[in-house]
Design a protein that fits this description.
By secondary structure, the protein is an alpha/beta fold. It is 39% helix and 15% strand. It folds into two domains: 123 residues, Rossmann fold (3-Layer(aba) Sandwich); 181 residues, Rossmann fold (3-Layer(aba) Sandwich). It is built from 15 helices and twelve strands. The strands form two sheets. The chain has a seven-stranded parallel sheet, with helices on both faces. A five-stranded parallel sheet has the order 2-1-3-4-5. Helix 1 runs parallel beside helix 14 and helix 6 crosses helix 8. The structure holds (2R)-2,3-dihydroxypropanoic acid. (2R)-2,3-dihydroxypropanoic acid (DGY) binds next to loops. The site of (2R)-2,3-dihydroxypropanoic acid (DGY) has 8 residues, from loops.
């Protein structure tokens, strides 16, 4: 009898096929029922593969007493009650490393799009408004020589910082742990959090979300930023007070913002939608064929290890501690 795996939503076919070969697979979204109802119907579920949009809390975990692993199809795992899983000895895995480069690329894409007003320019062209080269047409912000601030020099922060340095930007960073090796190797400068916020021409967030850093970017923090700075968030929406960011941008208190994540995802603060100096993406940091497939295969490998008595790779740090 094949062991039962619940996948909350469909993902890439090769991974689905692999799951079907080895396990009895239930795809929750195909049932038209919510995850709680699906787990109640399948209390013998031994593995749960979830997306970052699936809140996997104590109540859900309690519905499946044989659960051995929760495999998150994302590197961030603030959607999972890890403490509860740990208590019950349920493995929790995520997908680090593989999405680092794709997410760093998207960060730079947003930074470039905001600084060089790419989306605005595209709309301008499509509206048939281009009447010829203009000395002051769509003037933007130069990257070279400006300061790129990174908050959180983990894997993605580092990959982004290296790209920023490649564009000729000076990199300053704040991270819980100082990274002397990156300072020495790439010439990055460590500074206190407030100093990074104050000095940056482009400020990019790359830290995991937890209650402790909820609204790290609130009124006080945003007001420390240079009035012509660019704010980039590809990490988690809860790190910023989105309403205040909208207000600040409306008042011209920043040059612009590039966002891939939102405080009340998938909802977006209405006022942001009206602003030309905001470039928004629908949480696509890791969205390349290669990366998403590898992320999916990582979840499959983790499930296969856990359900055959092994210890999966890519356990979340709390599990490794
Ligand atoms: C993650 O994996 O946590 C990212 O936010 C996905 O883009």
């Amino acid at each position: 009898m094949k062991k039962k795996v619940v996948l909350t939503k469909n993902y890439l076919e090769p991974a689905i096929d692999r799951l079907k070969e080895q396990f009895q697979l239930v795809v929750a979204e195909e049932t038209g029922k919510d995850l709680g109802a699906v787990l109640k119907e399948h209390p013998d579920t031994e593995a749960l593969i979830g997306f970052l949009s699936d809140k996997i809390d104590r109540q859900l975990i309690g519905l499946v007493p044989n659960l051995k692993i929760i495999a998150n199809y994302a590197v961030g795992y603030n959607n999972i009650d890890v403490a509860c899983a740990l208590e019950k000895g349920i493995y929790v895995t995520h997908t680090p490393d593989v999405l680092t480069e794709a997410t760093a690329d998207l960060t730079m894409a947003l930074a470039l799009a905001v600084c060089r007003r790419i989306v605005e320019s595209d709309a301008f062209m499509r509206a048939g408004r281009f009447e010829g080269w203009g000395a002051k047409l769509m003037l933007g912000k130069e990257l070279r020589g400006s300061t790129f601030g990174v908050v959180g020099l983990g894997r993605i922060g580092l990959a982004t910082a290296r790209r920023a340095a490649g564009f000729g930007m000076k990199v300053v960073y704040y991270s819980k742990t100082r990274k002397p090796e990156a300072e020495e190797r790439f010439g990055f400068t460590y500074a206190r959090f407030v100093d990074v916020v104050k000095q940056s021409d482009i400020l990019s967030l790359h830290l995991p979300y937890s209650e402790d850093v909820h609204h790290l970017f609130n009124e006080d923090t945003f007001d420390l930023m240079k009035p012509d700075a660019v704010f980039i968030n590809v990490a988690r929406g809860g790190l910023m007070d989105e309403a205040y960011l909208a207000e600040k941008l409306e008042k011209g208190g920043l040059f612009g913002a590039g966002l891939d994540v939102y405080e009340f995802e998938p909802k977006v603060t209405e006022r942001l939608l009206k602003l030309k100096n905001v470039v928004m993406a629908p949480h696509i940091g890791s969205a390349t064929d290669e990366t998403r497939l590898e992320m999916a295969m990582m979840t499959v490998r983790g499930v296969a290890a856990a359900l055959t008595g092994g210890r999966p790779d890519h356990l979340v740090p709390e599990w490794r501690a």
